Amino acid sequence: MQIDALLRRLDPSGTIEEDTGGVLVRCPAHPDGRPSLLVGLSSEGTASLYCRAGCSTADVLQAAEMEMADLFRVAGEPTVTKIEYEPLGGAPLAALASYVDWAASRFTGSPAEKYAARRFGVTPDLAEAFKLGYDDGASELFSRDYRSESYRAHPRLVVPFLDWQGNPRGLQGRDIGGRCPVRWAGLQNPRGADGKPVMRWDTTGVVRADTAYDTVLVTEGPGDALATASAGYTATFVRGAGVARAERTAQEIAAGASGAAVVLAGDNDRSGRQFNDALGESLTAHEIQPRTLVFPLAHKDICKWRDASGDAFARKLHTAVSDAPQWTSAPARRDGEGVRLPMDGTDIENARYALRVVGPDTAHVEGVGFLTWTGTHWRPMSRSRENAIGHRVADAMRAELDEMPKGDPKGSGEEREQARDHVEATKRVRRMHMDSGIQAALTHLKTITGRDVEEFDAAPHLLAFRNGVVDLRTGELLDHDREHMLTRLVDLEYDPEAPAPRWEQFLAEVFPGDPEMPEMPAFIRRLIGYGITGETREHVFALLYGHGANGKSVLVNTLAYAFSGITTHMSQAAIALARSYDAAAPNPALAALRGARLAVLSELSDGLRLNEALLKQVTAGDPVVARELYKGQFTFHPTALLIMATNYKPDVRGQDDGFWRRTRLIPFTREFTVEDRDATLPERLREEIPGIIAWAVRGAVEWYRDGLQEPASVSMAVEEYRRSADVLEGFLPGVLVRDPAGQIKLKDAFDLFLDWRVDEHVEPVLRWGKQRFRQQLESRKVAYNPRGTGGVGWLIGVRAAEKG
User: What is the value of pTM for the model shown?
Assistant: First the structure.
């Protein structure tokens, strides 16, 4: 159905007023003296109805004798009733300025301030520059009030539409409670005594700070503009392709930009492309050569891109702006109907056809493979599912072939041409039914849908569950969104109120007695909460240590079960120090860390040493190169908290601060006797998994607010572990002592070391040469001067101990 036909069925009078977010017509479900039914149209062709008087969509459709199906597959641009508006000014403009000032005075400390910071990255200084405000809808205004009932029904972030001189000329309020069907609501246009609009608020605005870059980005709405301006750019927003085509819009941008570069930043959909093309044509007529912002197709708009990118958004936006190509007009379609025939089926065309088959639900990451959107998260495709894409294309091509006229090789000229076309198309269809054709199409589909591995799981504060996505900073449950780009799912319902009394009793039983132990359960909660965030700023390796039956394995196994969707397991072969290492060999255990939040490490067997360098690299979040079996290598940033439960402290030889600063040795001193043990405990704890998940989410919220706050017993245990692991304990200090004024020749110190090694029978250092000896002392913060007195090497800050 065409949009005009839809509007006539809703309002036979034909009165259609342009409004922010769509058009206004009279509502058929109630006596409507002035148009109050807002009709919007999405880029997918779905119409939305919102009555400002409160009528439900079902009531509106029933009154208009329409069905819900009539709101789908709607096309075209609405024909708005032509109204001669007076220039905006006088009392309405003064009332608008007063309202903007009033809302701005209520912004600091309000829910709108928190929303603007979280959703758009707006700092308090930027909010003041942008003149943002807050309106809870409860206050009565004493001047002219242009707020509708629907506007006032929900608390809103107030975003004024400023002109290039910083004066408000209109505004929109963003619902921050998530309950209003119209997220962005505008003010009612000023009307005359007869109830007809006499002025119209501006539908464009400028957002910029004094320190903004000169480059101007043009977005479709104020939300994208705020996100863009918060990253340092001047942003102007234009509501819709119709306004973008207006001569006045191009004139205002041309005058305001004053020669600066202009980048078109429409959404990643059909309407966004129409927006860019409409504005591109208008600006080109004003001798401005705009460029077009290209950002990942997985993100519908700039706000979604920012949500998925987290702290990396500004950097990614700067890169995209720098790489933005010059806008060019859209190419003409090859025929009036846009029909694709099987004879067009080159490998690239078949890949494009496959893209239409899979839509926005497929992405490809080098080294990882194809990913598909499940409705809750992005999941790797199996090889058979990849091939199924090719099968669907092949079946569609066969159906197209069946619709083609076969022609006649001996008939008229047109029939002979049809026969040749059919033969050629048959060859292409047959090839697409062969493995070579399928693989060729999939190869090009990889290029078309290609994504950077870093685009996924880039928002560590988000965690997907069956019933939504939890913001671990606040505990808020959000809707699933493919643009969160999450590849892991906790396959359970999230219930923040779920209890876990036996779990909390278990933690209290595991950590008794010690004066520091009462703090340990809360520390464990914050530690695991930190782990499920995917943040790496703490650089932590959790080592749960203790002899015998003390609860550490039950704790780790229960958490791994509860969070199985975000947990990976690493064998001792993956974490033990190996004498030979082939970087090009597959390392699936390391590759499994991609996207994981918790990593359970196997206890090391006797004689194996911990790979300290690998643990430092993984816990720091530094880039790691990995390769799965039969796939290409890829680089990613690990996000997992490493956890090892062990009866014996791992063999660690290094004394550099990097490893020890990361280690959190958590002592499990309780030993449960046979009488104390509860054989049913693991099963009982599994019954409390929803409560354990809520417990961990509370720990994440606490960590974001307060940090880890580790007990002193953990720090003391690490220091003791470090001293016991030092193979030079007894030599330094002992044979050598620290002295700020002291120094000793490296040769003399090494001779003392050789004697000590023999006397004390210290096997780990038997093969040390002079260079290894020096390096080990340097790791213990002993300075070395290679060209000291006499031109030989000296150790600085130590001396030989006095004999006595």
Answer: 0.55
